[in-house]
TrEMBL record:
UniProt lineage: unclassified sequences, metagenomes, ecological metagenomes
Protein name according to UniProt: Gfo/Idh/MocA-like oxidoreductase N-terminal domain-containing protein
GO molecular function: nucleotide binding
One Pfam family named in its UniProt record: GFO_IDH_MocA
Domain Gfo/Idh/MocA-like oxidoreductase N-terminal span(s) in chain numbering: 7-108
Amino acid sequence: MSSSKKRYAVVGVGGRSGMYTRAVTGSHAEFSELVGLCDTNQARMDLRNTELPEGVGPVPTYAAEDFDRMVAETTPDTVIVTSMDVTHSDYIIRAMELGCDVITEKPM
């Protein structure tokens, strides 16, 4: 992968996250790289990995309580937050504290 690619991690890999992972690994793959998935449900992360285009992934997966470790190990430029609404602010604030940009589907 080219170091000029923007690195993305996704926290919350339910249905809505698919539009982001498809964009990062599909239509924007020339400029983007998916580097990590984080969720409370390992089976959902495993499924998302199977849905990635050929030649992409699998990307590392992390339990929700390992969010900080995911950021440290995968060094994303941007964290995409598509977790349950009640957890959005926790992940948004923590990602910014760790030096990441954030994309969120909810207005702030």
